[in-house]
Specification:
Elements lengths: L5 E12 L2 E12 L3 E5 L6 H9 L6 E6 L2 E2 L5 H7 L1 E4 L11 H12 L5 H14 L15 H13 L5 E5 L7 H16 L3 E5 L3 H7 L2 E6 L2 E6 L1 H5 L2 H7 L9
Parallel strand pairs: 3-8, 3-9, 6-7, 7-8
Antiparallel strand pairs: 1-2, 1-4, 4-5, 9-10
The protein binds adenosine-5'-diphosphate and magnesium ion.
């Protein structure tokens, strides 16, 4: 079996909220080193799926494997220790701490037993990687939106993930800024992390994703390269009449 290369494997994942089936029968795999995008119209179930992957929710159906371990019933912390990291759509740093301190905290808590000196050094390296080194001594509340997103990615990376989950990190960025954010995600990938991201800005998906999973009404309606899925009639019709531009 060549399954050793899968970092994530979802098999028939489902999540029901009362009468609403938010995610239904979702199956996909992410190979090591692959950048995987999850797209779909508003309300398709993308964020719920991410919450199932990270352990915020337990699925009402299906199994999830992370790095070949069954984590279907594992809490967030266990997944984090196995190698799953997550940056949130809503950025939540410690506002009065400096940028460097924020990332140091991530390094300290992300890997139990990490010494302060080690954590501080690791934080510096991540500030270099994410382009935040010049702002290291600023208070987190003084950052711009783009810098905040960089910080959120740096904090997620501080837990030394092998897989990083990103939920609409480009939201609110101007086009030039989202190009910078694309560069940031490429650096993360080049550092050896497999990235799974939700994004509604199609040029970003086109530029970054090795493979795309398309959701609509809780289900996966297509998977493949950007080119393949955007040519799929089912995908085109799912996007018809929505705000998102499929062929941007
Ligand atoms: N905690 C929740 N409780 C009840 N319904 C929810 C909850 N979270 C999401 N939903 C519903 O599940 C569906 C999918 O939502 P979501 O996963 O946020 O979609 P997306 O991220 O693709 O926009 C929506 O109909 C949403 O209203
Ligand atoms: Mg969402």
């Amino acid at each position: 079996m060549s399954a050793g290369q899968d970092v994530l494997r979802a098999e028939g994942l489902g999540k029901r909220f009362g009468g609403l089936q938010a995610v239904q029968d979702v199956s996909f795999t992410q190979r090591r080193g692959e950048v995987l995008a999850i797209i779909g119209p508003n309300g398709a179930g993308k964020t719920t799926l991410l919450n199932l992957l990270s352990g915020v929710y337990r699925p009402s159906a299906g199994r999830l494997h992370l790095l070949e371990q069954d984590v279907t019933d594992s809490p967030i912390e266990h997944r984090c220790h196995l190698g799953l990291g997550r940056a949130f759509q809503i950025v939540r740093p410690f506002p009065d701490m400096t940028v460097h301190e924020n990332v140091t905290v991530g390094a300290l808590f992300g890997t139990p037993g990490t010494r302060l000196r080690e954590a501080r050094e690791q934080a510096w390296a991540l500030l270099e990687l994410t382009g935040l080194a010049p702002h290291a001594e600023k208070a987190a509340h003084d950052l711009t939106l783009l810098q905040d997103k960089r910080l959120e990615v740096a904090r997620a990376l501080a837990t030394r993930p092998q897989v990083l989950l990103l939920d609409e990190v480009m939201a609110g960025l101007r086009p030039a800024e989202s190009q910078e954010a694309v560069g940031l995600i490429r650096s993360v990938r080049d550092s050896g992390v497999s990235v799974l991201f939700i994004e509604h800005i199609m040029p970003v998906v086109r530029d970054l994703a090795d493979r795309v999973v398309v959701m609509d009404q809780g289900r996966v309606i297509a998977q493949g390269t950007y080119r393949e899925v955007t040519a799929d009639p089912q995908v085109v019709s799912a996007y018809l009449g929505t705000e998102a531009e499929l062929h941007a």
